[in-house]
């Protein structure tokens, strides 16, 4: 999988595919990150899909995920419908979907460690609190 940016550079994920194919299971892997509000929207959308897919693959290979949680910062701070710039909700979405599709398998191992300060917990959007994902 690769993505062509306006600057004619490719973002290659072959190294990720290689690790996912040959890495051993049972590792605990932290997934964290964000993008700039100045990033091209197509690259932002691609990166969200990439983070979600990487999370799914790692879980399917037997790994556990460490992530943080907090406010959902967006490309346009005044528009709640604009694209998020933080990836932890993508990670949590992937974990939630895995739990929904494989509840018995999930009961036998820890899928995720979610880290949040008291301040970050207070910043979790209400829609996320009521979604059942956290």
Strand and helix map with partners:
Blueprint: E1 2-4, E2 10-12, H1 14-22, E3 28-30, H2 41-60, E4 64-68, H3 88-101, H4 103-106, E5 112-115, H5 118-122, H6 126-129
Parallel strand pairs: 3-4, 4-5
Antiparallel strand pairs: 1-2
Helix pairs in contact: 2-3
Sheet with the most strands: spatial strand order: 3-4-5
Beta percentage is 5-15%
Quaternary assembly: single chain
Count of DSSP helices? 6
**Helix- and strand-based class?**
alpha/beta
* Mean pLDDT across every amino acid position: 78
Radius of gyration: 16 Å
**Helix percentage:** 40-55%
Alpha carbon gap, first and last residue: 30 Å
Q: How many domains is the backbone divided into?
A: 1
DSSP strand tally: 5
Could you please describe the fold and organization of this structure?
With 134 residues, the chain is an alpha/beta fold. The protein has one domain (26-129). The protein is built from 6 helices and 5 strands; from the N terminus they run ββαβαβααβαα. It has helices spanning 14-22, 41-60, 88-101, 103-106, 118-122, 126-129, and strands at 2-4, 10-12, 28-30, 64-68, 112-115. The strands form 2 sheets. A 3-stranded parallel β-sheet has the order 3-4-5, with helices on one face. Helix 2 (41-60) links the parallel strand 3 and strand 4 (64-68). Helix 2 (41-60) packs across helix 3 (88-101). The longest helix has 20 residues, at 41-60. The protein is globular, with a radius of gyration of 16 Å. The two termini are 30 Å apart. The model is unreliable at 1-18 (pLDDT under 50).
């Amino acid at each position: 999988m690769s993505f062509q940016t306006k600057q004619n550079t490719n973002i290659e994920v072959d190294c990720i595919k290689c690790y996912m194919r040959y890495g051993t299971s049972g590792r605990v892997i932290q997934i964290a990150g964000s993008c700039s509000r100045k990033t091209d929207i197509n690259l932002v959308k691609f990166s969200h899909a990439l983070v979600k897919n990487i999370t799914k693959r790692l879980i399917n290979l037997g790994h556990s995920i460490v992530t943080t949680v907090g406010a959902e910062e967006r490309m346009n701070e005044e528009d709640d419908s604009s694209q998020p710039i933080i990836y932890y909700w993508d990670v949590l979405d992937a974990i939630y979907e895995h739990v929904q599709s494989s509840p018995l398998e999930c009961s036998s191992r820890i899928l995720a460690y979610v880290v949040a300060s008291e301040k970050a917990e207070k910043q979790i959007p209400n829609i996320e609190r009521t979604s059942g994902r956290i």
